[in-house]
Amino acid sequence: MSASHVAQGKEAPYYYVPADSVHPVRASASLLITLLGAALWINGSTIGFYMVLVGLLCLFVVLYGWFGDAIRESEAGINSQRVDHSYRWSMAWFIFSEVMFFSAFFGSLWYAREFTTPMLSNLDHQTLLWPNFSGTWPNFGPAGIVPEFKTVGPFWLPTINTALLLSSGLTLTISHHALRANHRGKAIFWLAATVILGFTFVGCQAYEYMHAYQDLNLRFDSGAYGALFYMLTGFHGFHVILGATFLTVILFRLMKGHFTADHHFGFEGAAWYWHFVDVVWLGLYLFVYWF
Q: How far is C-alpha 60 from the chain's CA centre?
């Protein structure tokens, strides 16, 4: 019987059910404060900014305690094989929901390019609705109502970001194999490299946004192209931040001696998520920057 299935010399329960927790209620209250603050902030209220800060700070405190409880349960050996299976299925369905999330935005990009734009440029629509509308992608809207902007090409920053993410997937795989071989020092080194590459990607994308906004005049209201560009790349960047944060927590756990060669789903779950982020970026790189 492995360490993760043993608690004080006895086999772990068939299915461990934790005690009642206040974490979900506190997390909900924190998110409510954050969203209300964001609504007030967008509408010009000064207090909205401070509400967002307070809500996010409270959320981080709640998550710290919540994650800590889950980690202590795992390290105490009270998670049985059934609980491990539950974690795996939960993570798999969560990633599937993320696939559907990004599929909606990729579908919007495809529909706007292949259907909406050509349809609006046909003779009937030009005569009745928008004369002189150009059916090219991207465009400046009917009668040029969208201020002129330039698109973001694949060279060089998006290509550099692609190399960073693909390299991070490789270093993460090396770290995983090292952990399975019980080489903890090697696993820590390559996981640290993965975290650095991930946050470097975020920094490069922030620089890209500044360049697009200031030099290319590409903004969120730059027609369908601008909206979809920032929605797709922005949500992906948020997922990179989230995934890099996951991996940072796993890195500190590795340094504290957590996980074994046979039982390390916390590591595996974070790795699944990171590889998903890599795959989504490849789609973005092709369909947003190249096509």
A: 17
What is d(CA 176, CA 22) in angstroms, rounded to the nearest whole number? 34
Where among 77, 94, 118 does a domain terminate? 77
pLDDT (tens, 9 = 90+) of the chain, 291 residues, equals 334 444 343 456 677 777 888 999 999 999 999 999 999 998 988 899 999 999 999 999 999 999 899 888 888 888 778 888 888 999 999 999 999 999 999 999 999 888 888 777 775 655 566 666 677 788 777 666 788 888 888 888 999 999 999 999 999 999 999 999 999 999 999 999 999 999 999 999 999 999 999 989 999 888 888 999 999 999 999 999 999 999 999 999 999 999 988 888 999 999 999 999 999 999 999 999 988
Which residues does 101 contact at the CB level (< 8 Å), separation at least 6?
Answer: 235
Please give the structure tokens belonging to residue 34. 């954050």
How far is residue 182's CA from residue 68's CA, in Å, rounded to a whole number? Answer: 24
Give the three-state DSSP class for 149.
coil
> What CATH number does the domain containing 172 carry?
1.20.120.80
Buried b (16+ CB within 10 A) or exposed e, 189-199: ebbbbbbebbb
d(CA 175, CA 241): 20
Are 27 and 105 in a shared domain?
no
Peptide bond into 156 cis (omega under 30): yes
- Say if 47 falls within a structural domain: yes
Task: Based on the fold, state whether residues 178 and 60 are members of the same structural domain.
Answer: no
Intra-chain end-to-end CA distance of the chain, in Å: 53
Q: Which helix H or strand E contains 7, and what residues bound it?
A: strand 6-7
Picking from 90, 156, 98, the residue whose alpha carbon sits closest to that of residue 277 is 98
285 in the same domain as 180:
yes
Which residue, among 244, 245, 250, 248, has the nearest Cα to 265 in the 3D structure?
250
